């Protein structure tokens, strides 16, 4: 079964608005990563947050991690049409385990 | 540094055939992982190689196999292709899959269509 589950499955906003995506997972993790995928292409790494971190920023991205609730959120501020993509969370491995990706959130930013 | 490269980018095969996909990781990266992405199942882990050894394997049938060469380049092979094998196959490299430290860098993928 999927370790990470993104919510919502799809999100449509206007340019300039903020977009928030959530990710829940089931077991303990060492890190959680967010990736972006433009239609039918490879994934681009956005940000990694370790299990002992609560919040991390990168440009217009803000990621939070709540290990007690086994959840993470990705906030994209002042969205642009170029942010239109699918966003995936991936839970990082404990030794001997592989990364597990959620089903993704499809974000559409309308001009 | 050059990114992860995958060849070919597109491939059309018929049922029963076999296919080999290639991945060249970022220079210095020793871990290579393969994923299958389909609309129905999402991104699913196939296997991971490090220093020519398979360290981890996903839940796929034995028709799916892979290998890694001494220069860290990796290939995956699918034999006796089925219609359901149509997917985007993604390769990702990282320095080493040490826990809590690794970012995976993905290639553009190989889109396989099985007719």
Q: Would you write up a description of this structure?
A:
The complex is a heterodimer of chains A (111) and B (115). Chain A has 111 residues and is mostly beta strands. In chain A, 0% of the residues lie in helices and 54% in strands. Chain A contains no helices and eleven strands. The termini of chain A are far apart. In chain B, 0% of the residues lie in helices and 52% in strands. In chain B, the strands form two sheets. In chain B, strands 2, 4, 5, 6, 9, 10 and 11 form a seven-stranded mixed sheet that branches. The model of chain B has no long low-confidence stretch (mean pLDDT 92). The chains are: A mainly beta (111), B mainly beta (115). Chains A and B meet through strand 4, strand 5 and strand 10 of A and strand 5, strand 9 and strand 10 of B.
Brief account:
The complex is a heterodimer of chains A (111) and B (115). In chain A, the strands form 2 sheets. In chain A, strands 2, 4, 5, 9, 10 and 11 form a 6-stranded mixed beta sheet that branches.
Write the layout of secondary structure elements.
The complex is a heterodimer of chains A (111) and B (115).
Chain A: E1 5-7, E2 10-14, E3 19-24, E4 31-37, E5 43-50, E6 55-58, E7 61-66, E8 71-76, E9 85-91, E10 100-101, E11 105-110
Parallel strand pairs in A: 2-11
Antiparallel strand pairs in A: 1-3, 3-8, 4-5, 4-9, 6-7, 7-8, 9-10, 9-11
Chain B: E1 5-7, E2 10-13, E3 19-24, E4 31-38, E5 42-50, E6 53-57, E7 64-68, E8 74-78, E9 87-94, E10 105-106, E11 110-114
Parallel strand pairs in B: 2-11
Antiparallel strand pairs in B: 1-3, 3-8, 4-5, 4-9, 5-6, 7-8, 9-10, 9-11
């Amino acid at each position: 079964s999927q370790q990470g589950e993104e919510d919502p499955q799809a999100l449509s906003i206007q340019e300039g608005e903020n977009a928030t995506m959530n990710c829940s997972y089931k077991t303990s993790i060492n890190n959680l990563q967010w990736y972006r995928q433009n239609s039918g292409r490879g994934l681009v790494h956005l940000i990694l947050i370790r299990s002992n971190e609560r919040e991390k920023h990168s440009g217009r991205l803000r990621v939070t991690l709540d290990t007690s609730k086994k959840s993470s959120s990705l906030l994209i501020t002042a969205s642009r049409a170029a942010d239109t993509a699918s966003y995936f969370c991936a839970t990082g491995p404990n030794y001997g385990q592989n990364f597990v990706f959620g089903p993704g959130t499809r974000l559409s930013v309308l001009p | 540094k050059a990114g992860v490269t995958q060849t070919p980018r597109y491939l059309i095969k018929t049922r029963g055939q076999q296919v080999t996909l290639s991945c060249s990781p970022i220079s210095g990266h020793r871990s290579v992982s393969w994923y299958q992405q389909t609309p129905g199942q999402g991104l699913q882990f196939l296997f991971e190689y490090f220093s020519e050894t398979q360290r981890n394997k996903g839940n796929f049938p034995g028709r799916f196999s892979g290998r890694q060469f001494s220069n860290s380049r990796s290939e995956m092979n699918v034999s006796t292709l089925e219609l359901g094998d149509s997917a985007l196959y993604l390769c990702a490299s990282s320095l080493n899959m040490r826990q809590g430290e690794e970012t995976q860098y993905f290639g553009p993928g190989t889109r396989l269509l099985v007719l």
